[in-house]
Structure formats: C-alpha cells, structure tokens
Amino acid sequence: MTISDSSASVVIIGAGQAGLSVAYCLRTLNLAPGRDFVIFDRGPGPGGAWQHRWESLRLGAAHRVNDLPGMPEVGLSFDTADQSRPAREVVAEYYRRYEEHFGLAVVRPVTVTSVADHDDRLVVSTSSEAYGERTTSTRVLVNATGTWGAPFIPHYPGAETFKGHQVHTANYVSAEQFAGQRVIVVGGGTSAIGFMLELDGIAAGLTWAARRPIDWRHSEHLDLEGAVAAVTLQDQAARAGRALPSIVSGTGVPVTPRIRQGIESGLLVARPMFTAVEPGGVRWSDGTLSAADVIIWASGFRPELRHLAALKLRAKAGGYSVEAGTSVLDPRIFFAGYGPQASTIGANRAGRVTARRIMAKLAEPDAPELPVPRG
Ligand code: FAD
C-alpha cells in the first residue's frame, strides 16, 4: 500500500524567516532542496507573513528585521534596505532573491491541511489549486508556520452586539479606511501604537485601551534578543507546554522619537481595558460609555498549529512542549520560530540549531541513507 504520493527526508511547513533559515542551514549541511527536503508555503508569493502586513508599515524604527543567514552572499541586508518603501514589498523582494539565489525551491501556494503519524513516517497532506490534494511522507517535520494565520481577539461581554466594524491587525489595511470615524484601538504593543499614530488627525475620535500599563523602554529598537527576560519567559512557557505569553510583556515598548512626540502630545495615553462592548460603543469600569464606529483589535496572534492536531502534541497545560525547538513528545517534529525563537533573530538561530538536530536525527540507525555530499 502506498501511504503517500511522494517522499522527502525533511518537510518544512512555512517559508517565512524561520523556514527559510532552516532550509538554508540544511543546504549548507549538504541536503538538496527539492530532493532531500521540501518547503511548502501557503502564501501566494515570497515574504512569509510580511507580504500580508499593512501598506504603511516600514522597516526601521521599531520594526527591525534581521538578515537571514547567508544574506551577504546575495548582496542584501535589511540594515540598508529602503525605509521609504512598504516593509511588505521590501521583505518579499529580499526573500524572493534569497530563495532564488540558494535554489530553495519553495512549493507554493500549497496549504498543509494535516500531518498524520504512519508507523515510522509522518504523512503530510497538502491542498492547492495547482497540485490538488496530495500527500508527502517524511521522516522529519519542521513546523515554521508563524502566527499570522491565527489572530487572537480576547472575549469581552457584548462584543457580538457591536453595530460598528471590528478589525484585527491581520485585516488592517490603512488609516484612510477609518477616516471620519470614532475608533477604539485595543492592545499594548507596537502595532496598536502604530495605528494610533496613523489614525491621529484622520479618525473623528481616537481612544486607546490596553490590558496592562504600557512598559515604555528608553531605547529606539525592539531588541528582542537583548530582551533576555522576554526570551526566557517564552522559553519557560514552551518547555512547560503552557500557552505562550505575549512578547511585549517581556520586552516593553521602545520609545522612538515619533512615539515620544505622541506621548508628549497626550495622544499615546492608554486607558485600562473597557469592561463591556455595547451596540454603540464600549463601556468603561466607571460606567461611562465611549461611542464608537470601529474597534481595532491589535491584540496579538497565537501560534498557527491547527494542522498538527492529529499528532496529539498538545500538553495538558494548553500549549506545546518544545525544548530548543524540538517537540518533547515527538523528536521527529521541530518547531522553528516558536516561543523564544519568535523574532527574526530568533528565527535565524532556529535555522542553525534545528538543521544540526535534523542531521543527527537522520543519521540515526533506522534512517534512510544520507545524501552524498555535493561538491
Ligand atoms: P511567518 O513570517 O509568519 O512565516 C510563516 C509562513 O508559514 C507563512 O509564509 C505562511 O504562509 C506559512 N504557513 C502557515 N501555515 C501554513 C500551512 N498550514 N501550510 C502552508 N504554509 C503555511 N520580528 C522582528 O524581528 N522584527 C520586527 O520588526 C517584527 N515585527 C512584527 C510585526 C508584526 C505585526 C508581527 C505580528 C510580528 C512581528 N515580528 C517581528 C515577529 C515575527 O516573529 C517575525 O516577523 C518573523 O518574520 C516571523 O517569521 P516566521 O517564519 O516564524 O513566520
């Protein structure tokens, strides 16, 4: 009986910073793209989640994207990228050139719908208009699916009765779509702050609400790697199999000159969260109502892992137990860009560590022969 249409030693799901980084590192360890490992990505083009981010988002200031490993060889660096162009265009172009230069042969647009355990193989089911429904069997799976496809909106009583428009960061297009409207922005991170700054002077009314007081940091960059506390909190939760905490709860928010201006002008003052949503607006704990036409939920994302449900890797504590990027329950499964690796610098580290561990896994006695090293 055939269990799959094709096979590869390694399947990588996702061609964002984490998936590309793993692919590059596997290639440097002599695995051939398209033969020894295959990358599936759901997106229409290169760019990972960045290709879907809103038009006004720029690189620089709070949004610093680390270079992928090997990028100097391509003659590219995000440090010198054009900050006047939308980040989504720049990142998509750089990833495209990177994929082409290293021949990473990403197969897209292909959605991984599920992964099943079949004896000693993992069977990856995919769906796409171009290739139809297919299965690929593999010894090792790298899940690098990021979070963009799993937007999170916390529950507030009455939210379903709101007569206005509710938008999550994932669906935000531009400030102009809210011109002349009364807007409530929810969230304590850089996305919420970016929306507040953009909507100032465009929205008819603007109110900011956050669950916690904003932890302003007097540095211009969101230095995720430097923010050891943030990485440690993520790591502890991942190891314990708990749901991951928000990144901003560990890093704080860097005060760029633009943000400083917003704070000093009184625009960037967050109110503690409202207690309920009503048809015409939001109700605060003091009983007052703010009338609103729009609520923008900049309330974050969760890891996108639905397609792994059949593997039953979810821990009792509600999350996935992951140590150094490897599933604790099933060492054939790697989580790149998960928890402590969920930044572009962390995703790069994921590449190095994961590729080495994959090679060790493939070298185990019951594994098929390793490919012959290329010239
Ligand atoms: P993604 O870039 O999300 O890539 C995942 C890929 O997996 C996507 O291409 C998607 O199409 C694919 N995929 C998902 N599910 C499937 C499936 N079932 N089948 C097939 N393909 C699938 N980090 C920074 O370091 N600097 C920043 O400035 C920064 N800004 C951010 C701004 C926002 C608004 C957000 C939400 C995050 C930001 N981050 C930032 C953190 C984020 O971790 C990085 O952007 C990083 O690029 C994520 O890389 P990734 O590869 O883990 O995920």
Automatic annotation (TrEMBL):
Gene3D superfamilies: FAD/NAD(P)-binding domain. The keyword Transferase does not apply. Pfam families: Pyr_redox_3 (PF13738). One of its GO terms (molecular function) is monooxygenase activity. InterPro entries: Auxin_biosynth/cation_transpt (IPR050982), FAD/NAD-bd_sf (IPR036188). It comes from the Bacteria. Keywords: Oxidoreductase. PANTHER family: FLAVIN-BINDING MONOOXYGENASE-LIKE PROTEIN (AFU_ORTHOLOGUE AFUA_4G09220) (PTHR43539), FLAVIN-CONTAINING MONOOXYGENASE (PTHR43539:SF78). This is Cation diffusion facilitator CzcD-associated flavoprotein CzcO.
